[in-house]
């Protein structure tokens, strides 16, 4: 299996993980918020030193490409590009929503009919979200959404939906009365949960262009929604 340095900076949490052979060799996490520029380089250095100590050659660098914070994603992708270039290894982009979904799927045993709805907070009642089945197939393609009491109705009427992420508190107020709505708190996108996704992309040779790849910023998604719906 590939030796990969995984970098996640899409929210207030900054994390880096060195993964190999289906295991997290070492990882670093910071939950203080807005410290990405301060701690990220040190986290990467720790992972590089751990790889050297264990005689592991880095095969790729993976980075979360959003949706998420403009500042966090910019810092993460810049560091990832520089590292991949310096090591002469490919760069892998991983969806933040998929990272969160994997974290929930691996946290417990769920019925195969359960659907997963990760939610990244944007402004006011807007979130960026998607819906995935147990095979990680997108039932609802990732997109911005203005929440109301009818959001996710077509999925909730079919079966259980698990809501999570830093935007799910908004949905709880609107949807918790539905018998199929379930909420899990304290789910953050973390580098240690990127492993399965980054290894899959490595095997499929799905790599980013070092020169032209860009992250998916929340502000770009907000621009696609009419201002009248955002209350602007």
Q: Fraction of residues in helices?
A: 25-40%
Tally of contiguous helical segments: 8
User: H/E element string?
Assistant: EEEHEHEHEEEHEHEHHH
Total number of strands: 10
Distance between the termini: 49 Å
Structural class: alpha/beta
Radius of gyration: 18 Å
Residue-averaged pLDDT: 92
> What portion of the residues fall into strands of 2 or more residues?
25-35%
Overall description:
This protein has 232 residues and is α/β, with parallel strands linked by helices. It is 33% helix and 26% strand. The protein contains 8 helices and 10 strands. It has helices at residues 36-53, 70-87, 96-105, 153-156, 168-175, 195-204, 218-222, 227-230, and strands at 3-8, 14-20, 23-30, 60-64, 91-94, 115-121, 126-132, 138-146, 161-164, 181-183. Strands 3-2-1-4-5 form a 5-stranded mixed sheet, with helices on both faces. It has a 5-stranded mixed sheet with strand order 8-7-6-9-10, with helices on both faces. A hairpin with a 5-residue loop joins strand 1 (3-8) and strand 2 (14-20). Helix 1 (36-53) packs parallel to helix 2 (70-87). The chain is globular and about 55 Å long. The chain starts with a strand and ends with a helix. Mean pLDDT is 92; it is low at 226-232.
Strand and helix map with partners:
Blueprint: E1 3-8, E2 14-20, E3 23-30, H1 36-53, E4 60-64, H2 70-87, E5 91-94, H3 96-105, E6 115-121, E7 126-132, E8 138-146, H4 153-156, E9 161-164, H5 168-175, E10 181-183, H6 195-204, H7 218-222, H8 227-230
Parallel strand pairs: 1-4, 4-5, 6-9, 9-10
Antiparallel strand pairs: 1-2, 2-3, 6-7, 7-8
